[in-house]
Amino acid sequence: MYVAEKKQGQKLYTKQQFLSSKKYTAGHKDLLSVLLEDKKSYTHEQVKNIAEKFLKKEVE
Question: Record's superkingdom (predicted)?
Answer without folding.
Answer: Bacteria
